[in-house]
Each structure stands twice: as structure tokens, then as C-alpha cells.
Amino acid sequence: MNIRFLLPIGIFLALVTISAVSMLSMLNGDQASKQLPSPLIGKKAPDLILAPLNTTLSTSQKKSDLKQSVENEPFLVNFFASWCAPCQKEAPFLNKLSNKIPIIGVAYKDRSDELAIFLERFGDPFIKIGFDNDGKTAINWGVYGIPETFLISNEGKIIARHAGEITNEVFNSLFIPSIQEMIR
Amino acid sequence: MMFKLSLIVKLFIVLFFLTIVSFINDKIDISGFLVKNASAITAEEMLSDPILEKRARNISAKLRCLVCQNQSIDESDAELAVDLRRQVREYLEDGMTNKQIFKALAEKYGEFVLLSPTFQPATYLLWGAPLLILAIGILLIANLFSSSKINFPKSSSDTKVFPELMTITCKQNKNDTEKNSVRYTQISTISRLALPVLILLLSVGIYLSIGSPDLIDYSPSDDNTLRAQAENELLEKNQLALKSFEEAKKRVEKNPDSLSAQFMLAATASQIGSIEVEISALKKALLLSEGDSRIKSQLAETLTRQANGQVTKAASNLISEVLKHDRKDIRALYLRGLELFQKGELTDAISYWKFTAERILPNSPLADKIRADVEQAAELAKIEIPNLTFSSVPAFNIGVLKREKNLINVDNNTFEKKLSQFATLSQNEQNQFIQQMTRRLLENLRQQPDNFDGWLKLAQAYLSISNFDLADDALISAINALSSEEQRISLIEFALLSHSSPKSIQIAGSQLSKISGELKNSFSVKFLQGEYARQIGDKKQAIRHWSDILNRMPTESNQAKTLQTYINSLENTSYGLLPNQ
User: Fold this and answer.
1) Do A176 and A87 share a domain, yes or no?
2) Which has more pLDDT, B194 or B113?
3) Which burial class, exposed, middle or buried, applies to B375 when counting CB atoms under 10 A from its CB (0-12, 13-18, 19+)?
4) Where are the domains of chain B?
5) Domain span including residue A16
6) Residues A109 and A78 in one domain
7) In the structure, what pLDDT confidence band is assigned to residue A8 with cuts at 50, 70 and 90?
8) Is the pLDDT of residue B67 over 80?
9) A69 and A119 within one domain
10) Separation CA B361–CA B367 (nearest Å)
């Protein structure tokens, strides 16, 4: 008799516990678990066919695949813009990083003159910069807010992604293990 | 025993209701009634095919804006949402089905981008929960049914547990009228069963009809409903346009000499596609304004539109007149380019268009047209496509926006939020924001065209997005709404100190000559007269006016000192230019 009434109550309590636990873990979760997971990880990196920033700092009409500027080694793709504050904050770290790994910059909705000032002030860690002014490349890469940094393996696959300012901690905890795993 | 049982039943009935309400809310969108028109979509984004557009809207409403996360991309103003809306429309134009589009975006952004999640292992519990609750409900009802037999004396198991209680009940039953009691238990069993069964049926029905656990794909049979909806909306829009056209017509009948009434008639006629009325209204406006060059170029444009994009002789003459007067009139410059293009003088056409581009913003509708036109001309002339330089947005004056708020009915919270973030918004978002403001302002002015402050604020708003010609237009409308001399002075102030275009200087001059009486000798009018003289290059007059005020001012005041430096610099330069004001 009693079991019949306890069963529904038990199910109800179990549901409450499940939702409470998942809510609490969301609240206390670290930075990494707050990020939206990217479904592109493990897949081939989308195209980067963009109008490159040339030496005279004006947008040229012809687009090219920026990925071809790196051959057979892992590299980073950094979506940024001169108007974004976290991008300015992460610039010094990217500059340091540029000695270790090639970085391709994608200037999201930016202007060449303002970009020139940005690079002058915060340094230029990029081997190539392309303009994504219609935001289509960003959509292809699943970017939902800049800055976002992707790690591409030497086979051209996305192996890690970080949304938001990239720091030493993020690089050590997320990107370096991914590179080590790739080598293995 | 009975009490405890019904408590649990009540609990689950509440759960039932919650589930059903959440279904209905999710699918029919009860809360959405309040914000039904909250779509952020702008006219430029829309597809010309009404059915595709309808589908685009439906899809957009089911996609999450990842920046604001609890809004769909249909409602959001975020830049990413705008881009995603455009992407959805491109997919549709490529002929993709709804399901393919959802899948393509989920591949890039993950399941999270879908506002209603698909049916897969991770969401089994989510979609299964209502069924689970349903199952528990059925279990309970079965329970209730069997335990409702408690009252029947023949129920064997219960009598074993509570034999004494049963005998008491039975005795009482026997003591009272036995028949009544039996009827009572039967009725209560039926009524107690009726409600849960009803809920059961209802929830099963709702679940089957709208609670589909997967994204519904588009099928061609939906076309008819979509087409009907689209036609209805178009009809409504047309009716609205027709209504404002009729209103404008009435106003012109009542007030045939009003410039703003003629303007409004031309604008509404253009909306309903009545090009003849538009032309005649513009011609009247041209007469009333004594040959205003802005109206001339507008008329030239309308004439060109009437001739299906061919620049006619009459239009060409008007363009020449405008350009003689104001070499920077955007519309006239563009049309002259078009005229040259049609005559086959391609390089000249390109140089006119390049000159036009310098005066407009890179994201204005005309900018896209110019880009395409220049490209076409360059291809025909077999030369490289030249780079176009567009005008850039000047630093925006937040003060203007703050003042504007009083006139426009916007949600205060959104407004303050946007305003506080204004400096951090990207250029595109800033433009969009200002464009929204001006649109609202315009709607307001359509209702009350005599609102002088409104027209002046509109002019300021246009100025801030470097739409100089429209600022001139708004200023001309403001003249018609003038009702006091104070307003006339603030109009002149704006024309000279904020705007200072060839047209606005001309307006300031004619308005200054209309000020009469004591006011004519006031400090502010004298100052403005001096400023007007300076801007048209009449140095002597400028110095005369300003010295006049200076003599009447206390010499130690700051104003007097500033004015003295103005006069000194005027005397020392050969042009009428001032040092940094």
C-alpha cells in the first residue's frame, strides 16, 4: 500500500534533485563549462577566403584563402576587431604567442584605417589578416562573439576553440593539451 | 487515507496543467501577445518574394540569438542576429528546406542555436518528461479508481486492514438510508474520474497536435497558407499607406499653400505608387518654395522613375539647374552619373558616382546601388573597378539623442540601455540605432506635422548620420511648422551653427530677414546676423553686427572677450574664416 504512494513522490524528488544538481553545477562551473561547445571541433576548418590586409593598409578587391599561408603545422585563427575591448586586452598575450605558433587574424566588421591604428598601438601578432565585413566567415566558423580563437591541427582540423579573451591559463589548460593529443 | 490520496492527485493535476500551459505557451506563444511586433527586422533585409520572406520569419523565430541567448534572431538587434537573418534568407534563396537550414546552422553553432531542441539522446528526458508525467497520472487514476472502492463494503482487502472502521461505516450506512449512500459513492466516483480523464485526453491531444518532438520541416503545401498570410499583411500595409495618402490629400485640399502638406502628399503618393500625384505634388511644392533645388532634384528623380529609369530631358534640365546651385546635391549627382551612363560616357559616369559616394554612408541603400552601378560601368568600359570612398560617420552627439527621447515613444529601459552602450556599439549598430530613432520620429511627425521641435530634432538626427540633404528637407518642413519668433531663432541657430550647408545658410538668410520689431536688436539675433554675414563672406557686415553687440556688453564678460577674438580674427584674415570655435 505505502509503496504505491511513495513511488510517485520518489520520482518527483528524483526529478527535483536532478535539476537542482545541474543548476548548481551551472552556477559554480568554471569558465570552460560556461562556454557554448563548438560542434566544429574535430572537423575540417571552414574556408578563410577573405580580402587580405595588404601592405598599404587598404582593402584590396581580390580575396584569397588565408589558410594557405601556413603549411603542415598547427596554427591559430583569431577573430578580432579594433573596436572590441577584450581584443585589446588579449593583444599582449597574442604578441608573445606569435613567436611559438603562427596566428591568422580575421578582422570582424572592421575598417582598414582603424585596424592600422589598432595594430600600431597593440602590436601585430598575425602572419596574415583578412577582413570579414559581411560576417559570413564568422557564421561559417560558428563565432558568436569576438574575440574567439581556434586551434587548427596540421591536418587542417579544428581541435580547440576558446570564446572570449585568450590568456596564458586558457592556452595552457585548453590548447596545449590539444596539441599534445594531436602529436600522439 | 482518502485525504492523503487526493493531495497527491492534486499535485499531479497541477503538474498536468503546468505541462499543458507550458506547451501552449511554447507553441502558441501566450506571452508573445505582448511583444508580437517586437521583430527587429528592417526593410532592407526583407526578401521580395513574400512566401520566402514568410518562411524566413518563421525560421528566424526558431533560431536562438547566441549573443542575447533568450531572444530569437527575429527579435534581436544584435549584429550577429542581423547576419544570421541574412544567412537564413540566402539559404532560402538557394532553395534549401527549413530542416536543411536548421541543420546547417546547428552544424556551426551546435544544438543550442535551435530554440526548440531536436529529439536525440541528450534530450530524451526533456521531451519524455510530459509523457512520464502522463504515465504517472494514469497510474494514479488507476489507483484512485481502485481505492474509491473503499467505501463499498464488499471490498475485501480494505476491510481486512480497517475492519473496525469499515464496520462503523457500514453500520452508519445501514442506519442511514442505504440507497442514498450507494448513489453518492457512484456519483463521486464518476465525477472524480471525469476531471483526470478529461485532462488526459486534452494533454494527449495537445501533445500529438503541437508538441512534436522534432523540428517541423517546410512542405510545399504550406505555400498556400503562407501566401494567404503574406497577401493579408501586404493588404494591411497597403491600406495603411492608402489611409495616410487620403489624409495627406485632405490636408492639401484644406491648405493648398502649405509646403509640408504637398511634401507629405508626394511622399504618401510614392508609397502607394501613384507617380502622377507624386509629380504634381512635387511641382506644386517647387512653386511654393520658389524653385528650391532640393525639390528640383527630387522631382528629377521621380521623373526618371516614371520613365523606368531613363533620365528624361526634363529631368536632365532640372539636374543641371540643381548642380548649378549646389554642386554637392547627392540625388542630382547620382542622376547626372546615370544620365552619362545611359549616353555611354562611362568614365564620366563613374567619376560622378565616385563623387556621390564620398557624400553618403557606406551602408545606405544608395551606396549599394552605386557599388553595383560603378561595377557595371567599369566592366562595360573594360577598366579596373575603381575603389569607392564613402563618407564616415562623425562622432555622434549623445546630447541630441537624449533630447530626442522626449519626443519619441520608446521603451525607456531599452533606450537607456542602448544609450549607455552607445559608445561601445559598432558603427553599424550605431547607425541602425539612429535610423530606428529617425524612423520613429518620422512616424510621429506624420501624425503631427506642426511639431516644430520634432522637425528640428529630425534634422539633427539626419545631420548626425551625415544625411545632409534630408537634414535640409527636415529644416524646410520646420519652417512650415514655425509658430513663434523664438522658434524662428532656434531654427536659424541650427541652420547656421550646426548644419551650415549651402541650403541651410540660404534658409537662415531668408528667416533672418523676417524677424521684426524689438527682437531684431536682441543680442542673439545680432550675433546670428553677424554669423550669417560671415558665412556668406560679407566680412564688413559681420564685423559691424558683432561690434554692435560688443558695444552694448559689459567689457569684462567672457562673452565679450570671445566676441572680441572673433572680430579680431575676422579683421586679420582675408577670408571669413574663424579660428577654432
Assistant:
1) yes
2) B113
3) middle
4) 248-381, 399-572
5) 2-31
6) yes
7) confident
8) no
9) yes
10) 7
Please give the pLDDT value at position B337: 92
Grid cell at residue A173? 589548460
Provide the CATH topology of domain B399-572: 1.25.40
Helices assigned H by DSSP within B148-217: 156-161, 163-175, 178-209
Cis peptide before A147 (omega within 30 of 0): yes
Q: Are residues A42 and A131 both part of a single domain?
A: yes
CB proximity under 8 Å: A 113-152 to B:
134-136, 138-142, 144-145
Chain B residues lying within 8 Å of A9, measured CB to CB? 8
Mutate to test the interface with B, among A9, A56, A144, A148 (most CBs of B within 10 A): A144
pLDDT value, residue B389 = 79
Q: Do A146 and A74 lie in a common domain?
A: yes
Q: Give the residue from B2, B4, B83, B132 with the most A CB atoms within 10 Å of its CB, the best one to mutate.
A: B83
CA nearest to B150, candidates B316, B350, B324, B1: B1
How far is it, in rounded angstroms, from Cα B248 to Cα B290? 22
Interface membership of B118 toward A (CB under 8 Å): no
- Name the residue in chain B with its Cα closest to that of A41: B108
Give contacts of B84 with chain A, Cβ < 8 Å: 139
* pLDDT tops 70 at residue B422: no
Beta strands in B259-311 (DSSP E): none
Chain A residue whose CA is closest to B6: A5
Short-list B505, B494, B565, B501, CA closest to B534: B505
pLDDT for B235-247, tens place per residue? Answer: 887 787 788 888 8
ipTM over 0.90: no
Length of chain B: 581
Q: Are residues A130 and A75 in the same domain?
A: yes
CB-CB under 8 Å, B161 with A36: no
Name the more confident of B424 and B105: B105
Chain A, 58-117: which have a CB under 8 Å from a chain B CB? 58, 61, 81, 83, 85, 109, 111
pLDDT digits (tens, 9 = 90+) for B156-214: 444 455 555 545 554 555 555 455 555 555 556 666 667 667 777 776 776 665 555 55
Query: What local confidence, expressed as pLDDT, does residue B496 receive?
Result: 82
Length of chain A as a residue count:
184
- Return residues 130-149 of B near A (CB < 8 Å): 132, 136, 139-140, 143
Are residues A92 and A44 both part of a single domain? Answer: yes
Whether residues B140 and A138 touch (CB distance < 8 A) is answered with no
Residue B161 sits at the chain A interface (C-beta within 8 Å):
yes
Q: Judge if B248-381 and B399-572 fold alike in CATH terms.
A: yes
Whether A57 and A116 have beta carbons less than 8 Å apart is answered as yes
A85 min Cα distance to partner chain B (Å): 9
CB spacing of A36 vs B67 below 8 angstroms: no
Assign A60 a pLDDT band (cuts: 50, 70, 90): very low
Cα distance between residue B463 and residue B292, in whole Å = 19
Question: So what's the pLDDT on residue A95?
Answer: 92
Structurally, chain A folds into a number of domains equal to: 2
- CATH number for the region B248-381 comes to 1.25.40.10
- For residue A114 the three cell numbers come to 582603424
Are residues A71 and A12 part of one domain?
no
